[in-house]
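Re: the request from the purification team.
They wanted to know what the chain is likely to look like in 3D before they choose a buffer screen. I agreed to run a prediction and write the result into the notebook, where they can find it.
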Amino acid sequence: MDQINRNWQELNERVERAAERAGRAPSEVAIVAVTKTRSVEEVTAALAAGVTEVGENRVQEAASKRALVKDSARWHLVGRLQRNKAAGAVAIFDVVHSVDSPRLADALDRRAAEAQRRIDVLLQINSSGASQQGGLDADLLPSLLDHMAGLEHLCVRGLMTIAAHSDSSQDVRACFRRVHELSQQHRQRGPTDLDVLSMGMSGDFEIAIEEGATLIRIGTVLFGERVSHE
């Protein structure tokens, strides 16, 4: 587990250098440690190293881990969410990154009202055109923002995207830049400023920081390559 601590320190150094290249303060960028398939021991080691934001892809996996991890970290749902899992998501997560339709937003809002909670959400934009990555088309963002303004138990904090799976850094950068520009265009449209940008994973987070990311979602760089249990 000492390796996780070393990885955390090195990751923060890379974040700092990327922020400085963009003329930004490193404090503007928060790291969400994505713990998909990782053990409770690995999660605990990451928290001990300094992680304060934990990301999971699935509601059920997050529920089992959060019940065993005694810490005050904020938990983020960074994977796709089905409407029938909305109640579970509301019970576990502090932030949902993957809202991409009025129907999903309505389901979350209804469950949050029942739980007497207010949940931070990000709207997922499909910036690459790849349907398997999820998210809504950019031209549908205004109507979704208008819809969200009427939901009392969801707080729209910003946007999320997954960049193109491409060997071209220019293609990746274009995805992040497009979403940053969208956030600037629509900042005053919703009930809150779209000041959070969840962009960048282990393979492209430095480009994302250079293009304005405020949250980066990191798994492999922190925990190492996943070990197959098949």
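For the purification team: Residues 2-222 form a domain with the TIM Barrel fold (CATH 3.20.20.10).
Please add any questions underneath this entry.
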